[in-house]
């Protein structure tokens, strides 16, 4: 009997697909070869935006409970040291969002010493619909200890209230803010990295594409951009390609019963992929569809991938990692597939202990980031 229970971003959920349905998905050749072009192709008849907001509110409440349990396990993760609320400058949908700052030992003394720290700019998961900037505090602890870096986690605006491309533009705006204001916050703009989990891993990649285009626009207008260097991108189980149907991704998994339940993926996609005519191949949404030139010019030299063996997103993450490593792009790609675990396994709502392997892998990721920061 397959295990039909999974965890998504700290929420225990049940995959209602029967073994017969799963076998049918595995045999669906059409699902695996068909490509989607617009949001309408992916969603069909979308629910009302009112229903989506009500449903998102329900799942956000459940997620809060799951993350509360997740944080109880020893060693307790740190709390943010301070926050900054900034106004959006890139998005046409004007508004504000908040950055949560976790600071390493010695940060307070930097007021007197003038020391500058590297910074990891992080984006939480939750299908662009649920989640909070504090969700990755367990990872933050390792960034502080292993990298001696500031961890800046972004509360980007969520869908369905703010569908694509607001999250990507907020993510790029967060980087732009640190490029401009980092020295005032004791952050070295020449030692930046992005990180993210699931949807946030998508943002960790796509925000570099969006920022590169925005900076080019600013330069053409004559604006001077402060010197900066994004050294690395660290992605955990990213979604990279919306042109492939969700059914195809489940069909490709070796454990369809362990993949993200359709209840959630339908909510996430209907919330974020809007309006219906939205083109799914845009690089800010599906970085796997970006050109070689875009990826070469915008993506940092080091790219870190962690994928999960039982995740429906594993193959697309692996494919993008391979593409970035091979000519003509040739990035320094550090890739690891974690065996025997589902999507977001590290956010397990177990109050007694951290998820298996999670702390060792957080430490390994920080080793790569530290290496990137230490390069000349």
UniProtKB/TrEMBL annotation:
Keyword terms:
Hydrolase
Looking up Gene3D superfamilies in the UniProt record yields:
alpha/beta hydrolase
Start and end residues of each Alpha/beta hydrolase fold-3 domain: 120-345
Please name the Pfam families in this protein's record: Abhydrolase_3
What are the GO MF terms of this UniProt record?
hydrolase activity
Parts forming coiled coils: none
**Organism per entry:** Corynascus novoguineensis
The protein's name: Alpha/Beta hydrolase protein
> Does this UniProt record's set of keywords contain Secreted?
no
Source taxon at top rank: Eukaryota
